[in-house]
Structures are given as structure tokens and as C-alpha cells.
Task: inverse folding
């Protein structure tokens, strides 16, 4: 199971309901997350971010994605609109015990960071052996479900 932690999420939801309109905060690093077979796939939008500034760490089942985007107008530029977030930003996700944090992979292409988190083998469905009467263990063995 994958869990996202954002302490202000509920506060934003309540404020949006009370006052209407757009959410108070837009995420700096928008993300999609979905399960595909025996793995979770996370996709982070990071347009304009240099790959060398992206940092992906896992510590005690917390996945942290950090990145930096910077742009400075050159001398003589007249900035008319500056809506894109600049600077350092990060997102944290809590990885459940059923995920294998040791086999996480990541790719970055065209401003999209894709992180793949496999489901741990011990969390996959499996058959359980069944004993028959008093004859002891049956010949049916425990195996991974296909």
C-alpha cells in the first residue's frame, strides 16, 4: 500500500468548501500513482528540472523525491508573468510494509520522473497447504499464486 502524507491537505479541503473557488495550494510536483500488476508506478511532473538536481531517497519506508528548478531572467528581460515555481521542492510518500523498497527503480525522460515500486514477494497472494483429517500434512504445498 502506498500512502501520501500532506498535513495541510484536509485544511485545504475544508477551506475550499467554505470559501469555494480554487484550492489554496497547487502541488509543486504533481503526481499520478497507480498499481500495474505486481508494482506501483508513480509519475511526477518535473518540467524544466535538470536531472542532476533530482534526488530520490528511501529511509524507513519513506520515499522522498526532491528536485530544484531555477530560472533567472537575464539583464534586459521584462518579466510579464512568472507562475512556474522556482527553487527547491520535495514530496514524501509512505511506503507500506507490503512494498519492496530495496528494488525501487526510476527513470527521467521529457520532464517526467517515473518511479516503480514492486510489491514485496511476501505480500503477494499464495496458496496455503491443507491437511486432510488425521493423516498429517497433505501433499498440497504452499506456492505463489500465478
Result:
Amino acid at each position: 500500500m502506498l500512502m501520501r502524507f500532506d498535513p495541510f491537505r484536509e485544511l485545504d479541503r475544508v477551506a475550499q468548501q467554505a470559501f469555494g473557488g480554487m484550492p489554496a495550494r497547487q502541488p509543486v510536483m504533481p503526481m499520478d500513482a497507480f498499481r500495474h500488476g505486481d508494482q506501483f508506478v508513480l509519475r511526477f511532473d518535473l518540467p524544466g528540472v535538470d536531472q542532476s538536481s533530482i534526488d530520490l531517497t528511501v529511509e524507513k519506508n519513506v520515499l522522498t523525491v526532491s528536485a530544484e528548478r531555477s530560472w533567472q531572467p537575464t539583464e534586459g528581460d521584462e518579466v510579464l508573468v512568472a507562475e512556474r515555481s522556482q527553487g527547491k521542492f520535495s514530496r514524501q510518500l509512505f511506503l507500506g510494509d507490503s512494498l519492496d523498497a530495496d528494488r525501487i527503480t526510476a527513470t527521467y525522460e521529457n520532464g517526467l520522473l517515473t518511479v516503480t515500486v514492486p510489491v514485496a514477494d511476501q505480500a503477494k497472494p499464495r496458496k496455503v497447504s491443507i491437511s486432510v483429517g488425521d493423516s498429517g500434512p497433505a501433499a498440497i504445498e504452499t506456492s505463489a499464486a500465478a
Notes: The chain has one domain: 2-119. The chain has one helix and ten strands. The chain has a mean pLDDT of 80.
